[in-house]
Design goal:
By secondary structure, the chain is α/β, with parallel strands linked by helices. The protein has a single domain, classed as Uracil-DNA Glycosylase, subunit E (3-Layer(aba) Sandwich), CATH 3.40.470.10. The chain has eight helices and six strands; from the N terminus they run ααββααβαβαββαα. The N terminus and C terminus are likely disordered.
């Protein structure tokens, strides 16, 4: 189990270590370890990560991207969020086009990828069977989002990838003192909600193959959402002093 030290006192690097050590969800831990042992034939020579996956990116990020969960043969293999699968290929290529990543590919933890003004994490930190974490598992992981909320002090936009992440962010914001409109905002691609005077939530279809291979989410659509994110925090910036 994680340390009894209050999570709110942890620094970002300490938080990452605490996430990796988490054993709150036995179903997910068992599944991740089973996948790591059995592997996929294409990755037979890999030593799978097989543990919870922490967030990744710029500690001073203004854009915080929150996805669903690690992929069984993606981040659960490589140990870095959205790294080593087709979803990551789509996401990091877009971040590179937008100037938020130094390279368009993400294959392993030590491949030199760095993010600028962007931080990425997930609603659930372990790969779930069928990519569907249970509600209690999402709840168990919510404290990690709370910790990131406190530590990412420069955040101005949260980009939620998919409905589960959207709902998790609304709950996260409410737990941390934001007034959520009534009726509760519904998820839609490019939907936007002002969470506070300096923080907006924007939604996007998830960058999963199910969406990108079918054309439900295209490069142009996602590029437009990233530009929407940048506009959202730039419009709220104070004017430069003369």
């Amino acid at each position: 189990m994680i340390s009894s030290q209050p999570v709110k006192m942890l620094k970002l690097a300490q938080l990452h270590r605490a996430v990796v050590e988490c054993n709150r969800c036995q179903r997910l831990r068992s599944y991740c370890l089973d996948v790591a042992r059995e592997k996929r034939r294409a990755f037979a020579d890999w030593v799978y990560w097989g543990r919870p996956v922490p967030g990744f990116g710029d500690p001073k990020a203004q854009i915080w991207i929150i996805g669903l969960a690690p992929a069984a043969h993606g981040a659960n293999r490589t140990g870095r969020v959205f790294t080593g699968d087709r979803s990551g290929d789509f996401l990091f290529a877009a971040l590179h086009r937008c100037g938020l990543a130094n390279q368009p590919t993400s294959h392993r933890r030590d491949d030199g990828l760095t993010l600028s003004d962007c931080y990425i994490s997930a609603t659930a930190r372990c790969a779930p069977p069928a990519n569907k974490p249970l509600p209690q598992e999402v709840q168990n992981c919510s404290t990690w989002l709370d910790s990131e909320w406190r530590l990412l002090k420069h955040k101005r936009v949260i980009l939620a990838l998919g409905k589960i992440a959207w709902d998790a962010v609304l709950a996260l914001a409410q737990r941390n003192g934001c007034n959520i409109p009534t009726p509760r905002p519904r998820f839609a691609h490019a939907a936007s909600v002002e969470l506070s005077a300096n923080l907006n939530l924007i939604g996007s279809y998830h960058v999963s193959q199910q969406n990108t291979f079918t054309g439900k989410l295209t490069n142009d659509m996602f590029d437009a959402v990233l530009k929407q994110c940048r506009r959202a925090f730039r419009e709220g910036e104070a004017p430069a002093e003369p």
